Amino acid sequence: MSADLCFASDNAGPVHPAILDALTQANRGRAMPYGADDWTARAVAAVRETFEAPRAEVLLVPTGIAANALALATLTRPWSRVFCTDIAHVELDEAGALGLASGGAETALVPSVHGRMAGEALAARAAAEPAARRGAISVTQLTEAGTVYTLDALSALAEVARTHGLPLHLDGARWSNAAVALGCTPGEMVRAAGAAALSLGASKAGAMGVEAVVLVDPPPGLADEARLRRQRMGLRVSKHRYLAAQLVAWLEGGLWRDMAETANMAALRLAHGLAAHPAVTLDHPAEGNMVFARLTRALHRRLRAAGAAYYPSDLPEPDLDSGADGAPLGARFVCDWATDAGRVDALLAVLGREEEGDGPRAPRAV
């Protein structure tokens, strides 16, 4: 793999220097463990200010799967179903963490278009489920297809949630990219969705490794339940200040916004370059920091030979050495806060002009 051509994931990106500096500061001397430290108090205050949620309960955890599982387990019961899209991370990529954390809750899948579920589709799926089995709604923003829900689209989902009396959870692994794409504040996004809980992602956005469950305005007793569930799941980190310091550096001065803008701009540049290639199409609109494209096997082989790293979007993973050269195969390219124009242009230069074996001219995009 060439480091200059790594577009596999924002998880592969470096930690921002400001966050490393905060960790160095947090490492000076001693501090009380398990969140009873000044860094944690600052992190909680920063989350509340960023999301305009003064009563929010903020529980830091080390991973995004842990955040989703803890949030949804707190909002549901063992016999419940969580309504989410058919490509949601909680459905495809978390190995049943929801069921384990909740004692048995399951997903109920809603068809998606470009990663988004419409209010009408959600309403129909919820109505088809017995009332006693309706647990919560989980919405990924931005979506697993790299698209965003507009504020109006979030409001439509919130209306379904209110109609059925269901709490709505935002899986915000890339919430910062979504907020920048929408040009709104994080608070506006959460209010539009009527979210009861947010999985706040920072690891993909340049932190070393920290996520949080944010209970936006919890009713009496819910925060205590969430804290006990976190303890029971083994997610209460003893040296808590090292989690908190990352959020302080990321949120207090608005660094999150600058980092998301850089990642989104790089992805837009990449999307335009890919769409301009005569043998490439885009599978989804590129609205955040991810680009989903369909390339011929010849182009895939050329990228691999140059050391490019990215994930296939077709599963099971296809064999690039078999099949007709002209058959297009999907790929996911992800940009992070440190992806600059030069890195994008280097990838596009590998693709270069159309050559023999690259396949026929394709339609431009979705």
Tell me about this structure.
- It is a single chain.
- The chain is globular and about 60 Å long.
- It has 2 domains: 3-10 and 256-351, Aspartate Aminotransferase, domain 1 (Alpha-Beta Complex), CATH 3.90.1150; 17-253, Type I PLP-dependent aspartate aminotransferase-like (Major domain) (Aspartate Aminotransferase, domain 2, 3-Layer(aba) Sandwich), CATH 3.40.640.
- The protein is an alpha/beta fold.
- 40% of the residues lie in helices and 15% in strands.
- Helix 2 (38-50) packs parallel to helix 11 (241-251), helix 6 runs parallel beside helix 7 (151-164) and helix 12 packs parallel to helix 14 (341-351).
- The model is unreliable at 354-366 (pLDDT under 50).
- It has a 7-stranded mixed beta sheet with strand order 1-7-6-5-4-2-3, with helices on both faces. A 4-stranded antiparallel beta sheet has the order 8-9-11-10.
- The relative contact order is 0.17.
- A hairpin with a 7-residue loop joins strand 8 and strand 9 (290-296).
- The chain starts with 16 loop residues before the first helix and ends in a 15-residue tail after the last helix.
Mean pLDDT across every amino acid position? 94
Shape: globular
Order of helices and strands: HHEHEHHEHEHEHHEEHHHEEHEEH
Counting DSSP E segments of at least 2 residues, the number of strands comes to 11
Treating each run of at least 4 consecutive H or I residues as one helix, how many helices?
14
Residue windows where pLDDT falls under 50 for at least 5 positions: 354-366
CATH superfamily of the largest domain: Type I PLP-dependent aspartate aminotransferase-like (Major domain)
Number of domains as seen in the coordinates: 2
Helix content: 40-55%
What CATH architecture of the largest domain would you give?
3-Layer(aba) Sandwich
